[in-house]
Amino acid sequence: MAWENPSNETLKEILENHKTIAVVGLSANPERTSYQISKIMQDIGYRIIPVNPTIDEVLGEKAYSSLTDIPEKFDIINVFRRPEHLPEIAKDAAQTNAKIFWAQQGIVNEEAYHYLKERDFTVIMDLCIKVVHSVLVK
To answer: What radius of gyration do the chain's Cα atoms show?
Structure first.
């Protein structure tokens, strides 16, 4: 079975009711898309938790080496990594309390999708969280 994104209604509900986002692959470089998207989401009221083993802090938030190192609760896992990294990230995600896995625009990995769906995750792939927010959340 191929992967499939949730309905627009579900995407809207996610963005309206889940406000803490762990961003895997968040760069400290303001020129990078991960930084720009995360900054916008932070500016409109979301809490951003950076996940990147190569930095200590970004956007005023402490960075963590992996999802499993984050000591606090988070709702959404937003991924800015190449598709081949998604299965490993999905395994880390399954060890957290989060149940929403969002791979940014251009990022799809069916192995990770099926792994997460088997563990009751809502999985979104190949969609930009900021674009979806701007279209669906008023």
So the answer is: 14
| Amino acid at the residue 8 | N
Q: Are 77 and 98 in contact (CB under 8 A)?
A: yes
- Cβ–Cβ < 8 Å for 87, 107: no
What is the identity of the amino acid at 95? Q
Average pLDDT over residues 100-112: 97
The torsion angles phi and psi of 23, rounded to 5 degrees, stand at -105, 105
* Residue 118, token pair as written in the block: 């088997």
What pLDDT does residue 44 have? Answer: 97
* Average pLDDT value for residue range 60-88: 98
**pLDDT for position 138:** 76
pLDDT in the model for residue 90: 98
Q: What's the 3-state SS for the chain?
A: CCCCCCCHHHHHHHHHHCCEEEEECCCCCCCCHHHHHHHHHHHCCCEEEEECCCCCEECCEECECCHHHCCCCCCEEEECCCHHHHHHHHHHHCCCCCCEEEECCCCCCHHHHHHHHCCCCEEECCCCHHHHHHHHCC
Dig out the tokens for 42 from the structure. Answer: 């932070």
* Overall pTM surpassing 0.85 (yes/no): yes
